[in-house]
Design brief:
alpha/beta; Rossmann fold; seven-stranded mixed beta sheet; four-stranded antiparallel beta sheet; 24% strand; binds adenosine-5'-diphosphate; binds magnesium ion
Length: 293
Amino acid sequence: MGMPAGTGLDPDDDVAVVDQGFRAGMSSGPEARKTAGEPFTENPRMKCRKVNVFYGDKHAIIDVSIDIGRNQVLSMIGPSGCGKSTFLRCLNRMNDTIEGCRVTGTIKLDEMDIYGREVDVVPLRAQIGMVFQKPNPFPKSVFDNVAYGPKIHGLARNRSELEEIVETSLRRAGLWKEVKDRLSQPGTGLSGGQQQRLCIARAIAVTPEVILMDEPCSALDPIATAKIEDLIDELRERFTIVIVTHSMQQASRVSQRTAYFHLGNLIEVGPTEFVFTTPRHRLTEDYITGRFG
Ligand SMILES: Nc1ncnc2c1ncn2[C@@H]1O[C@H](COP(=O)(O)OP(=O)(O)O)[C@@H](O)[C@H]1O
Ligand SMILES: [Mg+2]
């Protein structure tokens, strides 16, 4: 297809990139020209600029620049292996834990450079929480799963404050009614969907600003999935959410913005309905029409 080495992209595929970013003075330069659609937003919660990720010699994320809008759900879609999880893990420095993984570029949460020298990753990962594909409750009681974070971060002064945080978090995760009479039972004894909501409650308990979710429903049945999707929609009132999903239906149900990745490149970002109905880039179109992936 005549792709230049290294980018995986044919420059002829690029359409005029929206210049909101330039107008707002947020970014300029060739990196912004690579992504079709609207990578930048007004008053974003997070700003990512020229992010690259390497696993040893492998260049897994290539010059990605994108804003993450406040109190919105951004979904990240694309074929398997295109870098969605890798990019998501950049957002709370989870890649730091992977041997041989190197991240360059800038990522800010509001004005804080999250890769700054002075940043302590423990509180950072509370501020930017994460929910994984497979529910992973601690081998502890339902109560302790949720209480653990507030305890280690010193968010409660006494037992009754701790109980209040646990109850509020479980309510916000839509789980309170189902577990209020079994708080002392093991979290691992809940159903898969309940476990995932428990993990969401655990993330919420430390009052994050952003919640990252990596295919949070892929191990769940359709009913449990629908509950999590409803929950995501409620949570965006308080939190900013980034969700990786392999389901285009899910992306269109839960997200306001969608980002399409291909071979480590961010091909296109825009309002979800536009990305799915009038994609600007041929690669996005190929993917959403099922010609690829
Ligand atoms: N820990 C790792 N070590 C080496 N390569 C990795 C690692 N994690 C992911 N990769 C590679 O990076 C690329 C992107 O992977 P990933 O972010 O998991 O994609 P996705 O989530 O879109 O399926 C793939 O080529 C994958 O093989
Ligand atoms: Mg993945």
